[in-house]
Each structure stands twice: as structure tokens, then as C-alpha cells.
Amino acid sequence: MNGIRPDELDDRLEDDDEPFVLDVRPAEAYESDAIDGSHNLPVYGALRAGDESALRDRLDEIPRDREVVTVCKMGIVAKRATSVLKEEGYDASTLAGGMSGWNGYRAGSIGYKLRSLWWRIR
């Protein structure tokens, strides 16, 4: 499964060819804390329960001509979304650590720095 680290995504968001950031968390979570420029498709509960149809039914809302980076709270459910998107022919990856990882990166937390080191050596 393809993944992208928060620092890599942050760099990519500055590019002319920035990815489409798809946040699958519930609308309330997205509204309280989200990556700037991301798009919310609140299918978290369905995906967590194993129901991929909620995402598949809304594929027309996701561009096919851009890389898609999926986001959830910790990255676990987003991996399922990434898998569905790849099955459907999308160029997709998952934000490592989800919003928790993103917020740790933005805050420069020691926890993020240790996780980032682990991601790099794996």
C-alpha cells in the first residue's frame, strides 16, 4: 500500500501538480480540523464497518486526473479508501499517521519526529 509522509505531502501541496487530498472522516471531525484545501467525503463509518459501497457510490466526486491522498484520523480507514481507489484505477496513497500524524508534523512534536524516523528506515 502506498503511503505519503506528512512532510512529503506538505511539500507536494506547494507544487503546481498538487494531489487531491480526500478526507474520509465524519463531517464534524473535518469541520473542526482539516488540511487546508482538502475535500471531505464522510464515508469513514461505512468504510470502518467494511462497506465500500459508500465510497464507490461517490467516485464521481473524486478527480481521476490527479493523485489522490486519503486521510482519516490515524490512517487505518484511509488505507481501505486507498485500496478501493486503486481498484478503481486511481493513483492513490494514504497519509501516514492520518490527521494525528499531520498535526504532530505541524506542531514539530517529538512523537512525530520518532515516527518519521521509523517510516524512513522501514
UniProtKB/TrEMBL annotation:
- The domain of life for this entry's organism is Archaea
Cite a single Pfam family from the UniProt record: Rhodanese
The Rhodanese domain covers 15-109
Q: Which PROSITE patterns match?
A: RHODANESE_3
Extract the InterPro entries matched here: GlpE_sulfurtransferase, Rhodanese-like_dom, Rhodanese-like_dom_sf
UniProt name for this protein? Rhodanese-like domain-containing protein
